[in-house]
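Just scan this pair:

***
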Amino acid sequence: MHGAVDNKNIARTHGRSIAPPIRIQVSKKKFMLRIVPDTPDSSENLRQILVLLHLQLMLFTVTGDLKVLNCILGLQNHACTFPCCWCNGQSPWTVPGKLRTLSNLCSKHKLFQDSSGNRRKAKNFPNVVHQPLLPHPDNMLVLVVAPPPHLHLMLGAMNRIFNALN
């Protein structure tokens, strides 16, 4: 963090200077996006929060649990055919999936809407049923703007170590 003294606003008391105000310039900030009791995680609820906070006007990265990431990216839940938010892979995961981009998500959503928007047919459009909520350039990889959650990375690593020790 860098501090800058604003000489115009130095407060004075009986002719003596007191501590000048400091402006703090921070390039990256972290904050909790949502704590709303008794409110389900859904694309529409998350969209309302982003609009109320005017976050759709700025670039940001986001992380959260996998359900929230899917909601933010406009994907269906993890029981769908293409559950991964970072690639278009599908179970049984024998073929590597192609990494998703925001433009890919937007185009699949438009095709889904143009084809009647029937959720039963969402698998034909890699399960993109809502417009993504991230205001990044279209060619941006989802992996960059929504990196994997730390908890899931650590759980996966620890599970492998634990299984190897047994």
